[in-house]
UniProtKB/TrEMBL annotation:
Intracellular or extracellular location(s): Endoplasmic reticulum membrane
Keyword Nucleotide-binding on entry: no
Chief localisation class: endoplasmic reticulum
Subunit structure: Interacts with Rt/POMT1.
Protein species of origin: Bracon brevicornis
A molecular function GO annotation: dolichyl-phosphate-mannose-protein mannosyltransferase activity
Full protein name: Protein O-mannosyl-transferase 2
Pathway: Protein modification; protein glycosylation
Pfam family, one: PMT
Stretches that traverse the bilayer: 61-80, 86-104, 142-175, 196-217, 505-526, 547-567, 579-601
Domain MIR: residue ranges: 251-307, 316-372, 377-433
EC primary class: transferase
CDD domains per the UniProt record, alphabetical: beta-trefoil_MIR_POMT2
């Protein structure tokens, strides 16, 4: 399963081969580094789950992920200790996390999740330590923990974008701490300004700088052309060794008779593509499919011809803004064509097909070339010209909707003709331009700098995340299923199956204690508001539960509720960050309930119930 995915990416880092992934790079870089340092040479293909590793030294990558996953247990203990100063609550939280078989399974393999969970827990621990040291503000220890928190915020965000949720948690905690400082009349107001500046430097500036450094390393290491090139702009690709655009020389201008590739200008846009396969029955005219495809191959090549003749001029004639042209697919010799049939997915668009034989078609093959902000006489240029291709008869514009075609379209993206001429996805640029009769020029001058590549990489990742769809036969899940442990997730489909499933006692117990925490919080808050008299020690325990539990409850909410609004495909393992906060909340709620026995029952009975409850919970959890 995902081990083949991220193990392969570790290999690509070792080989310095560029690839595309929807996650930030730090976790994959660390996997590659751990493999490199332990003797793995990056040659194992990681093709499918269950492949035998033979002599590949993969163990170092697994041990690295497992080690980081193992740190979650002591980190849970330390977080709860700093929030409550209760040894019992701290031990319970560590036991709940240690005994969850889902976490044990997740932490055994080459995955991003153990890395993410470790860094997330480190950031949370740093937050708790800063809170515990509020009376020692600006001491060396306080500064150290503030920097520690900022460092691991950057690390968490650099593994997966869901790291943003722990950033929000620390942000809310910081606002709370600053509000407390503002209300402390024993300190001057200027003190709040000092705190604000310190936290801005350590929790905003430092994480941003580190995050950008990680991306700089990522882009510097992956400098060789690979399978992910096509997701990025032509300018971006020009910096990748082995890419057709790297140190490329080709004609600057487009002439009739040139063989070209057309790349859609939307973020993550693919190449205009065709192949011998036809649209199926019931999907418009049964003619040749036209799609966009994110990988480079010869099916992306098109011949540029005049609209009224198949003759290629002996002398170069340049294509200009407003010219009428035809595009002939080089492999199949069918023309780019549109007609008033409904597009496969975008029902308000017209279908685009490959039509004709040996380059001979009909009037529906004619397209008008328009340069963005161009005027009559402007010449179409390679890479730099943003083009619209307008159908001459139907006055629609060639576009890529970004929608993925079904299995019959090989999961490539739909190309259609949109009557809305303002379609923002209707821009194209020429990437390859092969024409021997014009002088070649170098395109190195168009290579982007780091910041341009940094922002483009993020745009492509976010686009890729939103485009993640369910694959045929794939088992996915919805957020309502996760807390109740409704269904797990297969990590392997071989005879010896690996099934990711949480400990039901822990998961269902977490739900019960989540509900109990809310009830206790509301009940004690109402009593406090009405001025009811209580034992001072009980009030102290109640405040400890409410203050510590509040942040763990918010952590659970932040790592769970956003998934309800996500349109992308979701999996069972997405719940594990929220599970950690819920397990720690369960521990401190159970600790409070045990302590409360001594306020309402005789000591002897309370002692008996204490040992019975604790023994039962631990026995059920461990068993």
């Amino acid at each position: 399963w995902d081990e083949t995915h991220f193990g392969k990416m570790g290999s690509w880092y070792i080989n310095r081969t560029f690839f595309f992934d929807v996650h930030p790079p730090l976790g994959k870089m660390l996997i590659g580094l751990s493999g490199y340092l332990t003797g793995y040479d990056g040659t194992f293909p990681f093709e499918k789950p269950g492949d035998k590793y033979e002599n590949a030294k993969y163990e170092g990558m697994r041990i690295f992920c497992t080690f980081l996953g193992a740190t979650i247990v002591p980190l849970a203990y330390l977080i709860v200790w700093d929030l409550t100063k209760s040894t019992r609550a701290s031990l319970l939280s560590a036991i709940f996390i240690l005994c969850d078989v889902g976490l044990l399974t997740l932490n055994r393999y080459i995955l991003l999740d153990p890395i993410l969970l470790c860094f997330m827990m480190c950031a949370t621990w740093g937050m708790a330590r800063v809170g515990a040291l509020r009376d020692e503000a600006f001491s060396r220890s306080w500064w150290g923990w503030l920097i520690f928190t900022g460092f691991f915020l950057a690390c968490t965000m650099s593994v997966k974008f869901v790291g943003l949720f722990v950033v929000l948690l620390v942000g809310f905690f910081t606002v709370y701490e600053l509000w407390r400082e503002l209300g402390d009349l024993s300190k001057p107001v200027i003190n709040v300004g000092k705190h604000l500046l310190a936290r801005a430097i350590c929790l905003i500036v430092l994480p941003i700088v580190l995050y950008m450094i990680f991306f700089y390393i990522h882009l510097s290491v992956l400098n060789k052309s690979g399978g992910g090139d096509g997701f990025f702009s032509s300018e971006f690709q020009s910096l990748l060794q082995g890419n057709s655009l790297h140190n490329a020389t080709m004609p600057r201008q487009l002439a009739y008779g040139a063989t070209i590739t057309l790349k859609n200008h939307r973020t993550g846009g693919g190449y205009l593509h065709s192949h011998w396969h036809l649209y199926p029955e019931g999907v418009g005219a049964r003619q040749q499919q036209i799609t966009t495809y994110s990988h480079k191959d010869d099916n992306n090549l098109w011949l540029v011809k005049k609209y009224d003749t198949d003759e290629i001029p002996d002398k170069p004639e340049l294509v200009k803004h407003g010219d009428l042209v035809r595009f002939e697919h080089m492999i199949t010799q069918r023309n780019l064509h549109s007609h008033k049939e409904i597009a496969p997915i975008s029902k308000k668009h017209y279908q685009v097909t490959g039509y004709g034989e040996n380059g001979v078609g009909d009037a529906n093959d004619v397209w008008k070339v328009l340069i963005e902000n161009g005027k009559d006489g402007d010449i179409v240029e390679t890479v730099t010209s943003k083009l619209k291709l307008v159908h001459y008869l139907h006055h629609c514009v060639l576009t890529c909707s970004g929608k993925t075609l079904p299995k019959w379209g090989f999961s490539q993206q739909e190309v259609s003709c949109n009557p809305n001429m303002r379609d923002k996805n209707a821009f194209w640029n020429i990437e390859d331009n092969r024409y021997a009769k014009l002088p070649n020029v170098s395109f190195q001058v168009y290579a982007p700098g780091f910041l341009a590549r940094f922002f483009e990489a993020h745009a492509v990742m976010l686009q890729g995340n939103s485009d993640l769809k369910i694959k045929e036969g794939e088992v996915t899940s919805r957020p309502w299923q996760w807390p109740i442990n409704y269904r797990g997730q297969y990590f392997s489909g071989n005879d010896q199956r690996i099934y990711l499933l949480g400990n039901p006692i822990i998961w269902w117990g977490n739900l019960v204690f989540l509900f109990l925490y809310i009830c206790i919080h509301v009940y004690t808050s109402v009593k406090e508001q009405r001025g009811s008299e209580e034992d001072p020690k009980f009030i102290e325990e109640t405040e400890k539960l409410k203050n510590a539990g509040c942040w763990l409850f918010i952590g659970w909410l932040l790592h769970y509720l956003p998934f309800w609004a996500m349109g992308r495909v979701l999996y069972y393992h997405h719940y594990f960050p929220a599970l950690l906060y819920n397990s720690m909340l369960t521990a401190i709620t159970l600790d409070f309930i045990i302590d409360s026995l001594y306020f309402v029952l005789p000591r002897r009975i309370a002692d008996t119930l204490y040992h019975f409850i604790l023994g039962t919970v631990i026995s059920l959890t461990v068993y």
